[in-house]
Model the fold of this input.
Amino acid sequence: MKIGIIGGGNIGATLARKLVASGHEVKLANSKGPDTIRDLAGEMGAIAVSKEEAVQDVAVIVLAIPFGRYPDLASLFNKVPADVVVIDTSNYYPFRDGAVAEVDGGKSESVWVSERIGRPVIKAWNAALAVTLAARSQSDGASGRIAIPVAGDAPQAKATTIQLVEATGFDALDSGTLSNSWRQQPGTPAYCTELTANELASALQAADRSRAPGNRDALLKEFMAAGGALTHDEIVARNRSATA
Done:
């Protein structure tokens, strides 16, 4: 499958590496131009391209950029065919992205993203830390395999995304509609807690929309205050306990 990934940071680069390893043809772009990621892309077997090239002649576009940058991409999709799957991996953090009144008022993050770029999206890979995606994948059927929630409204696009999530080494769990994807946003029990499929299904149902933003901000403040002293496992454990 031909895949374009926009975003060469930890998430985008990790997904590019894993998707190339599973046999897909990947084009990788960032905001600074292909020359700045040519070595990285070449090392993993991807092709460094511009953002405009990343959305041409592909079946899937993965967006792995900061939430606040999505309005910048609106014109990028003007000539992208309607059947191209667009996957949103982002999360809203007001301290980084600036306050977004609609999201603060309760609109699901990926619904807002879809409106900004003028395209339906599937929300996936947002509820896992970069270390989880890079180092905690397992083969299909492995005991304790971590699950990734996948939300969206288009059945075929969701099925394609589920296939790709599985290819990166995780169980994919259909988490419902895009408007219901708040259940996998920061501050919920499903967010960055490394759960199995059964555990994740329970966590999604247990999500409390009114508590999630407070949980998100309190956890972020705690992690920033720790100054990198917490291990990955300690961060996952804290996410679990704070959102339970």
